[in-house]
Amino acid sequence: MENVGGKVIKVLAAIMAIAVLLLVAYTWLVLSWSYSNGERAGYVQKFSHKGFLCKTWEGEMALVSMPGTVAEKFYFTVRDDQVAKQINESIGKRVALVYDQHIGVPSSCFGDTQYFISAIKVVEEPGFTPKATVPAVKP
Fold this sequence. Notes:
Elements: H1 2-32, E1 36-50, E2 56-63, E3 72-78, H2 81-89, E4 94-101, E5 115-122
Antiparallel strand pairs: 1-2, 1-4, 2-3, 4-5
């Protein structure tokens, strides 16, 4: 009888070990494979280092396509402290954030969003100077 109990514990331990290995493999896969990537340009308006156990840099950028339009918000995560430092130094300037989108990350310990920033570029302000009109002269 006691031999059966030992076998059950070994089977449960093997199942738990396989489950943990599958979770680790899945997490590695979703963090290393990017669903999409690109750039978003705008103004970083919120950026903070947050979390109880797993601290990540979380931010919010206002995407403004034209003056006078309503800004769309882009929420993002930064895992690299060097990139976070560059973002902190460029707050208030128009920037382009280079991102990779990772869908299905199993825990917020890796970040609160799907968008992970890998680089930042400070971009020139768009020129919206109106053309001067010359009134027609009547003879």
